[in-house]
Design goal:
Elements: E1 6-11, H1 18-30, E2 37-42, H2 48-52, E3 60-64, H3 81-86, E4 91-94, H4 97-101, H5 107-119, E5 123-128, H6 132-136, H7 140-152, E6 162-165, H8 179-196, H9 199-204, E7 206-210, H10 218-222, E8 229-232, H11 241-245
Parallel strand pairs: 1-2, 1-8, 2-3, 3-4, 4-5, 5-6, 6-7, 7-8
The structure holds phosphoenolpyruvate (PEP).
Phosphoenolpyruvate (PEP) binds at residues 11, 13, 166, 171-172, 210-213, 231-235.
Length: 249
């Protein structure tokens, strides 16, 4: 795990306004952030330019929360990878559990978005994770591997991919996976990547944990051998996001 750079993403979801973004960005720009952590924040689409023009780009990247799989055209309400790049951003989150379960995005659509975003030069944070009833039915690995296959089949350059494992039952619920529960799935996912993609990709790709990560639980999660960082929702809007960035200090 030591050669994989620790990565912490902040998914702001549909929260904030210019005033609250000013507070978050000023805090991050002036904070003592570990240079051993890659940091990316993800504002709502309408604030991509506002955020990317204010963050200290030497320390902080910016991700869109979603995009469509076409260059341009009659796709009302959506945005393209080129628009994300035109707003000074290098990343996009794809297949977040809220995209899957609130908006009904399928594995197939997410796979197509993965292929298109990569082809347009974005780096991507594709998300996978099981629902509570799937975990309780013993289907965690089946679901996570199926979702990951739909992503992996569409990736050629893995250096542009950071996977987020986010058990749906832990997202926004305050119910964090135990370090052992998270490590178990991260390790199995890495083994799957080794067998189905190749050992070098498995060794080098960063796998983030997401789901109710906060300043209090990040240190123990962050020292698990197959957890290479976090995708953080609620706590990324708060000053404690800095403590999560510095979890390995
Ligand atoms: C997320 O949105 O990816 C997430 C993990 O949210 P939270 O940290 O609030 O559970």
């Amino acid at each position: 795990s030591t050669e994989r750079k620790f990565f912490v993403g902040g998914n702001w979801k549909m929260n904030g306004n210019k005033a609250s973004i000013d507070v978050i960005v000023n805090n991050l720009n002036t904070a003592d952030l570990s240079p051993e952590t890659e940091v990316v924040v993800s504002p709502p689409a309408c604030y991509l330019d506002y955020t990317s023009s204010r963050v200290d780009k030497k320390k902080i990247g910016v991700a869109a929360q979603n995009c469509y799989k076409a260059e341009k055209g009659a796709f009302t309400g959506d945005i393209s990878p080129a628009m994300i790049k035109d707003n000074g951003c290098e990343w996009v989150i794809l297949g977040h559990s809220e995209r899957r379960h609130v908006f009904g995005e399928s594995d197939q659509l997410i796979g197509e978005k993965v292929a298109f975003a990569l082809s347009q030069g974005l780096s991507i944070i594709p998300c996978v994770g099981e629902k509570l009833e799937e975990r309780e039915a013993g289907l965690t690995e089946e679901v996570v591997f199926r979702q990951t296959k739909a992503i992996a089949d569409n990736v050629k350059d893995w250096s542009k991919v950071v996977i987020a494992y986010e058990p749906v039952w832990a997202i926004g619920t305050g119910k964090v996976a135990t370090p052992a529960q998270a490590q178990e799935i991260h390790q199995r996912l890495r083994t799957w990547l080794s067998e189905k993609v190749n050992p070098a990709v498995a060794q080098n790709v960063r796998i983030l944990y997401g789901g109710s990560v906060n300043a209090a639980n990040c240190k123990e999660l962050g020292t698990q051998p197959d957890i290479d960082g976090f995708l953080v929702g609620g706590a990324s809007l708060k000053p404690e996001f800095v403590d999560i960035i510095n979890a390995r200090r």
